[in-house]
């Protein structure tokens, strides 16, 4: 039951059907006073509260750069209507009915974002392939491969290599940066786990905002996608390190060193130092990727630390780091220094210097009216700066419908770029 899908099959429809039936039961007529007073009062109250919530989130608080989607607003409104009706018609069964409506509304939001693909992920339970890091960190004999040739050309999987990779939760200390990072996650492919360990490249992968490092594992099903790629290439796939670049689900330190946190130093000094000291991997030429805010960060790192990250995957990222608008961003994160902002703003950096050694893979949703135009601007600017870039729009909006499959589509490109395959 824990692995039942919340995105397809009978369960989502059952939840929506139960919620709809519960809402009808709450609305069943009880006379003129019910329909003339109680129901209108509940509807008006729910509309006012929903409008207030939108005002706080989209105008006053602004934790996200993009506004709440209409479906989310409607789901909040329907949930508030159900709660109001349950209170107005209080019986032993009305709280249960309201809970069913709220659950159905939440499933509607989940169906839009595709945040929780299974019951297990919705409950926050670990997947079966999670192992303590101490169980896989031991040093092994390493296969490096012939110089100048793809690793796959000479790799022979050892007999004890497993069929699937594993994921582990790890702590990456902020020794230099002091950044308040949450625990990170690591995906280790099959070719890392046998008695002979392939010397694999690294992909540093970043979440969106709001978000957590394990979002790529739960919502993006990274392990499944990477395992599928590895199965076609003798167990070879990048080692994926998923550090925290936010410090808090709703924080946005903009991938720079600022009063909001030293995220840049954490990602370019502390995280690489931990990788080199702890993992048996290729020493350099790594890739960085991410979605939405993490996609913006991956682009920033590609232009501000190109020697460390000459390869990037930008999935539905913005074309500039932002806290809502340019003026507020410069004031809050850069002390009002326009030049400091321009020094890390990707479009400004791309216009100022060439990047002939950098390659990028960009993804955005074809129905994403906010981020698709930004991805097109980034693609054009990157091409003009001499980057070897590809742009792959996918059907969908600013949701996991685009992000997970987008990364899956990028894996063959990454494998070639990082020297795994020809």
UniProtKB/TrEMBL annotation:
GO terms for molecular function: acyltransferase activity, transferring groups other than amino-acyl groups. The chain crosses the membrane at residues 12-29, 41-61, 67-88, 95-113. Pfam families: Esterase. Keywords: Membrane, Transmembrane, Transmembrane helix. This is Esterase. It comes from Pseudonocardia broussonetiae.
């Amino acid at each position: 039951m824990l692995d039942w899908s919340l995105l397809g099959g009978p369960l989502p429809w059952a939840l929506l059907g139960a919620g709809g039936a519960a809402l009808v039961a709450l609305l069943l007529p009880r006379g003129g006073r019910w329909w003339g007073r109680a129901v209108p009062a509940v509807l008006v109250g729910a509309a006012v509260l929903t409008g207030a919530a939108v005002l706080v989130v989209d105008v006053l608080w602004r934790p996200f750069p993009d506004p709440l989607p209409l479906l989310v607003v409607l789901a909040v409104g329907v949930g508030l209507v159900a709660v109001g009706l349950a209170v107005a018609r209080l019986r032993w069964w009305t709280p249960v009915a309201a809970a069913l409506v709220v659950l159905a509304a939440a499933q509607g939001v989940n169906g839009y974002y595709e945040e929780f693909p299974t019951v297990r992920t919705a409950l926050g339970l670990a997947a079966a392939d999670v192992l303590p890091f101490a169980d896989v960190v031991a040093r092994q004999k390493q296969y490096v491969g012939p110089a100048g040739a793809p690793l796959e050309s000479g790799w022979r999987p050892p007999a004890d290599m497993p069929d699937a990779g594993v994921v582990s939760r790890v702590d990456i200390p902020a020794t230099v940066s002091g950044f308040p990072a949450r625990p990170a996650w690591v995906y280790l492919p099959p070719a890392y786990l046998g008695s002979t360990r392939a010397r694999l490249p690294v992909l540093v992968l970043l979440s969106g905002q709001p978000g957590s490092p394990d979002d790529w594992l739960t919502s993006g099903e990274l392990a499944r996608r990477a395992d599928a790629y590895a199965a076609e290439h003798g167990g070879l796939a990048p080692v994926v390190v998923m550090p925290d670049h936010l410090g808090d689900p709703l924080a946005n330190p903009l991938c720079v060193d600022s009063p909001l946190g030293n995220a840049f130093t954490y990602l370019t000094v502390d995280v690489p130092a931990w990788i080199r000291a702890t993992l048996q991997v290729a020493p350099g030429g790594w890739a960085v990727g991410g979605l939405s805010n993490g996609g913006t960060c991956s682009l920033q790192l590609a232009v501000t630390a190109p020697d460390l990250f000459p390869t990037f995957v930008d999935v539905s990222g913005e074309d500039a780091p932002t806290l809502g608008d340019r003026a507020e961003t410069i004031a809050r994160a850069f002390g009002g220094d326009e030049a400091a902002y321009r020094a890390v703003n990707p479009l400004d950096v791309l216009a100022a210097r060439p990047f002939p050694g950098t390659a990028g893979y960009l993804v955005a949703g074809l129905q994403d009216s906010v981020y698709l135009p930004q991805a097109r601007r980034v693609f054009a600017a990157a091409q003009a700066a001499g980057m070897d870039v590809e742009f792959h729009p996918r059907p969908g909006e600013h949701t996991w419908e685009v992000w997970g499959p987008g990364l899956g589509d990028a894996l063959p490109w990454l494998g070639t770029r990082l020297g795994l395959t020809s």
